Amino acid sequence: MKIVELRAAKIPWIGSIAVHYWLVIRHNQTIERWEVWQRANCCQYSWGHLHKNLLHYDQGVGNGNSWIETQWLDNEADLLIDIITNTPKLYPYKYKYKYWPGPNSNTYVQWVLNEAKTQYSLSPLGLGKNYQPTKIFNLWTIL
Questions:
Q1: Which residue, 6, 53, 62, 101, shows the most beta carbons closer than 10 Å to its own?
Q2: pLDDT at residue 17, rounded to an integer
């Protein structure tokens, strides 16, 4: 059986207002953790800030244990797995990271969920989930 889990953990110091989200793929006795992290190129499978298996799949991020928010099975899991495993090629912000307003870990997870058209939205504690690049405008065009 294929399963994709959405996991979360409280962020150190600001855990009451912000959580870190990541995705876990469970298939054929293997488990993979996919996430964006503030540091780039931290492990064997890193593409900028995008990492596979940087930490143990259920390890928190320094402010307690993680938990499962939701999971997808069967056909939904297949679609998510296809998107997740292709994010090294497809995710547009893998070489950019900002705590606020993003792109950050929550931007990545919400991007994957949107690509799969899951209709699932991260909680309001998923700061950065709604990141949109802003246009820089020329002040002279306003004057």
A1: 6
A2: 85
With contact defined as beta carbons under 8 Å apart, do 63 and 10 qualify? yes
Of the candidates 115, 108, 109, 111, the one whose C-alpha atom is nearest the C-alpha of residue 69 is: 109
CA distances from 31 to 28, 34, 37, 59, 62 (A): 8, 10, 18, 13, 21
**Measured distance CA(111)–CA(19) in Å, rounded:** 16
What residue has token string 């997808």?
72
Could you tell me if 28 and 39 are in contact, meaning their C-beta atoms sit under 8 angstroms apart?
no
DSSP three-state, residue 130: coil
Phi, psi of 71 (to 5 degrees): -145, 160
